[in-house]
Write a structure and sequence with these properties.
The complex is a heterodimer of chains A (183) and B (735). Chain A has 183 residues and is mostly beta strands. Chain A contains one helix and ten strands. Chain A is elongated. Chain B has 735 residues and is mainly beta. Chain B has a seven-stranded mixed beta sheet with strand order 17-16-15-19-23-21-22, with no helix packed on it. In chain B, strands 30-29-28-32-37-34-35 form a seven-stranded mixed beta sheet, with no helix packed on it.
Chain lengths: 183, 735
């Protein structure tokens, strides 16, 4: 099984590698970030204490009026309704890294109407993204939609765009606008 | 983390020197000359598992003459190879040999075959004249194959773990025109691209020592005896710097006895084989549909029909894989090539799209054979690699948080292309990386239909333009309908990775498609990695389907919940047991039921659900700076909630699963039944660097001693024999 050799028995190549490394002693660049404790307004904050640290998750959600038209395909489709945007901002006190935004965008509150047939179109599942926290962020992605009651295989694709604002101190989502268009 | 493309020669030299220094440490570590505790004691690693911040060692510290710019990692050289310049080979299908009892020599046995052989003295702990068993499975009745009489093996599949060599017997099981024109009779040297160097024998260790990666074809009620021979070098130092020559083969997602699960402590040595018995039964076969009257609980026969079998058809499984699970060396061994896939066919998921019998779901596959057609059913193994200046596969250590390569491979081929027809295809996508998560999209943002998550078809197909993040070991089966493209020489669409990593702890940023395609990411594995060339229309009409209803989840709501448990995955673990073989120290650990955060010990029993019961487990991420894909062996779970709510669970995650991404700071609640088979199993992070650095625990089935022992003794393998010891610890909440 694994032999545990004393330091003196360390292979020469390893000793050389370590020796080479230890000769140069520049300190690592410090990476630390202090985040103020988030206040609880419309957002909610949960605190998880692990063995080594205290991680906070600040959750904010918003209903965002969204409209737009997807052209092409069998007919143009006009979408309107409210998108639900949820942002969970999770801190990283263990490594002092930039907080992660777990961003969830649910378009199921939107309905589409066909320009020619007036038939109803629905969207599929929401989108979940892990984004690095910044004061302003834009996410753009395509989303599938299809005639209500039709097969998922018949899905067409639209484009959704959301502009998000965050308070990087309170870790809350402070503003969001969205639109729908053609990809 | 990686050096920018326009780095100075000085900086590249510094990075290469530091990489070589790390390589020497990893080499000595992998060969057993030093231990992790030595590295901590000498100050090479911090207690938190981070390589000490020294120039000439850490990639995050600059050299004195480089203005303190972090050295970074040297890029793997491409030797002039261009992206998408070679064809992606399909998997190499392992032969299915009928009648294992006459085909195999020696014939398989219920208990381990302890026939003695002379041992090679190059093995550690062996002196000339020592003898040991030919089979590495622990001996005696505890590790005998459960159900060996009731489910005798009918198919033998044979493979060796072996040094890299040329493949002269490639069997893709499809004609060349379905394999991008690859001639299966041509020899295939072990290269990640025809323009890259051939791998040295000890650089890569794959099944049979060859590429493409291997595929096992199985079907329900046709038990397989998988004989895995260890033909790796006897001398542990012959590993080209990483990888351990002892192995344990985990049939990932398998529902069978623990003796066939690839328990981390049931490893076997070069010169031995291990017989794994995969009965391939529907879960619940002992209590549900025992008379085999349900027409959906069935397996394909050889003439287009089906045969009813006992069990719950809602437990039907489809896409498995198998890989090494050697204690504390899993990441090195899997990265080195110990990874393969296993397609399981059933009456529902027939692998024949033409049979219309009211049960067959007719998913894209083909029609030539009664089951298991692969023409339009393609396995994709995603894994990023790195290689040294000579082009030899290389692994690196700079912390215990994860390992990332910088070159994307699909089916162990660097950024290939794959020719398709203008019709529907099924792709079984496996994330076989060490620490990297993926998030996949098509380059034109068009729709993919996710039909399965992990081993199982979903209750309903989910159309998506971007898949959810895919953690290590997760399988996503998707359907892409290429009929929306007009075939032609320039008709192409690419599979794109959107998940940008900075390190091995978690995804740093899920990029938008435009961001990923911009070429601006510092992560070399972001962007296009597989090119689909839509080359022709199908010769026959596409009769495949993606039904609106596939396999609904079993309804467990009426089964009482016997127990609830919590497991928190975090850092700062304590090592409270010190068995030199079974316990391990590392920064990562698991806290069970609000107890201590403990480092791994496969001799410790952390949980022991009662046989035949249902439990609810909550898996919690102990921090926000990392993610963990948690794998629970043996029993599949249904996700009840994310962060406390079912509404947070995406539709594509609402089937049965065996790997659960926690997300940073997140939690996931699942429910499972414990039935059919017994023994000791595991739960661990499938970021295998985390797993190897102590984020692993053992749980076992408790049947009050009838027929399974309580508690089970721990196997301790040596070349001469597998010894047994009492558990090192039983947590007070385990039983």
């Amino acid at each position: 099984m694994m032999r545990r050799l004393p330091f003196a028995s360390m292979p020469l190549s390893v000793a050389l590698a370590i020796g080479t490394a230890l000769c140069w002693t520049l300190p690592a660049a410090a990476q630390s970030q202090t985040l103020s404790a988030p206040a609880t307004l419309s957002a909610s904050t949960t605190v998880a204490t692990s063995t080594s640290s205290t991680t906070t998750t600040t959750s904010t959600s918003a209903l965002v009026p969204v409209t737009g038209v997807v052209t092409g395909g069998a007919e143009s489709v006009s979408f309107s309704g409210q998108a639900k945007v949820s942002a969970n901002v999770v801190t990283d006190p263990d490594f002092g890294g930039t907080p992660t935004v777990i961003l969830s965008i649910d378009l199921s509150g939107l309905s589409g109407v066909g320009a020619s047939t007036s038939k109803k179109y629905v969207t599929a599942d929401g989108e979940i993204l892990n984004r690095r926290l910044t004061a302003a962020d834009t996410v753009q992605y395509t989303f599938p939609f299809y005639l209500s009651g039709a097969s998922a295989m018949s899905a067409r694709v639209g484009s959704a765009s959301f502009n998000l604002s965050f308070d990087v101190n309170t870790l809350k989502l402070t503003g969001v606008t969205g639109s729908i268009g053609s990809p | 983390m990686w050096l920018p493309k326009k780095s100075s020669q000085f900086r590249i030299r510094q990075a290469e020197n530091a990489r070589r220094n790390r390589h020497e440490i990893l080499k000595a570590w992998s060969q057993g000359q030093i231990s992790r505790r030595d590295l901590l004691k000498w100050g090479i690693f911090t207690a938190g598992g981070v390589l000490v911040a020294k120039s000439g060692l850490s990639p995050f510290v600059g050299a004195a003459r480089a203005d303190n710019i972090p050295t970074g990692l040297p890029s793997s050289p491409l030797f002039g190879v261009k992206d998408f310049s070679t064809a992606m080979p399909r998997f190499d299908v392992l032969a299915r040999n009928p009648n294992p009892f006459t085909f195999l020599n020696p014939a398989p046995t219920a208990e381990a075959n302890l026939t003695q052989q002379l041992l090679n003295p190059a093995l550690e702990g062996v002196v000339a004249g020592d003898k040991g068993p030919i089979e590495g499975r622990p001996g005696g009745p505890i590790w005998a194959h459960q159900g060996f009489t009731d489910f005798p093996p009918r198919i033998a599949v044979v493979a060796s773990q072996a040094q890299a060599t040329t493949n002269t017997v490639y069997n893709p099981q499809v004609a060349s025109n379905f394999n991008s024109g690859i001639d299966p009779t041509a020899s295939i040297p072990l290269k990640f691209h025809p323009g890259l160097p051939t791998q040295a024998p000890n650089s890569v260790w794959t099944f049979n020592g060859t590429i493409p990666p291997k595929l096992v074809i199985g079907r329900y009620a046709e038990p397989i005896l998988f004989r895995h021979s260890n033909k790796l070098p006897f001398d542990v130092r012959q590993n080209n710097g990483f990888g351990r020559h002892t192995i344990s083969t985990h049939e990932h997602n398998g529902h069978h006895g623990a003796e066939n699960d690839g328990f981390t402590g049931a490893f076997f040595f070069p010169g031995q084989f291990y017989d794994y018995h995969w009965p391939i039964v529907l879960a619940g076969f002992r209590t549900i549909n025992t008379g085999a009257t349900d027409p959906k609980a069935a397996t394909p026969d050889d003439s287009g029909g089906k045969i009813n079998i006992p069990g719950d058809w809602r437990e039907t499984m489809s896409t498995h894989w198998f890989h090494d699970h050697m204690f504390s060396f899993t990441s090195q061994n899997v990265y080195k090539g110990n990874a393969a896939m296993f397609n399981i066919y059933s009456a529902l998921d027939r692998g024949n799209e033409g049979i219309n019998d009211g049960v067959n779901l007719r998913l894209p596959s083909g029609t030539l054979k009664s089951f298991g057609n692969l023409e339009y059913d393609v396995n994709l193994m995603l894994a990023e690699k790195a290689w040294d200046a000579q082009g030899q596969l290389a692994m690196d250590i700079f912390d215990f948080d994860g390992f990332l390569g910088d070159r994307m491979t699909v089916n162990l081929t660097y950024k290939p292309y794959f020719e398709v027809e203008a019709r529907k295809y099924r792709f079984r996508i496996l994330n076989a990386s060490v620490s990297r998560f993926f998030k996949l999209a098509l380059s034109d943002g068009s729709t993919m239909i996710q039909i399965a998550n992990d081993g199982n078809l979903l209750p309903a197909p989910v159309p998506l333009t971007q898949l959810d993040e895919q953690g290590i070991a997760e399988r996503y089966d998707i359907v892409i309908d290429f009929s929306r493209y007009t075939p032609g020489p320039n008709t192409k669409v690419w599979l794109v990775n959107l998940a940008e990593h900075q390190d091995g702890k978690r995804v740093a940023n899920d990029l938008t498609l435009a961001e990923a395609l911009s070429g601006n990411s510092a992560d070399p594995c972001v962007g296009k990695f597989l090119e689909f060339r839509i080359v022709r229309k199908p010769a026959k009409p596409d009769v495949s389907q993606v039904p609106a209803v596939m396999i609904p989840n079993p309804d467990l709501s009426k089964i009482p919940v016997a127990r609830q448990r919590t497991f928190e995955f975090g850092r700062g673990a304590n090592q409270n047991t010190f068995d030199p073989v079974s316990s391990f120290f590392g920064p990562w650990g698991i806290k069970t039921d609000d107890g201590d955060m403990l480092a791994a010990d496969f001799g410790r029993i952390s949980a022991a659900p009662k046989f035949g019961t249902r439990e609810i487990w909550t898996l919690k991420n102990g921090g926000g700076g990392w993610d963990h894909p948690i794998h629970i062996h043996f029993e599949e779970g249904q996700v009840l909630a994310r962060d406390g709510s079912l509404s947070n669970v995406p539709k594509a995650e609402r089937g049965r699963k065996d790997v659960y991404r926690l997300r940073p700071g997140g939690s996931i609640t699942i429910t499972m039944q414990f039935r059919d088979w017994g023994g000791m199993f595991m739960e661990h992070c499938h970021n295998t660097v985390h797993e190897d650095n102590a984020m692993l625990l053992r749980w076992e089935i408790d049947d009050n001693g009838a027929p399974f022992l309580r508690p089970l003794p721990t196997p301790i393998p040596t070349p001469q024999e597998v010894k047994f010891r009492p558990p090192t610890q039983i947590l007070k909440t385990a039983f």
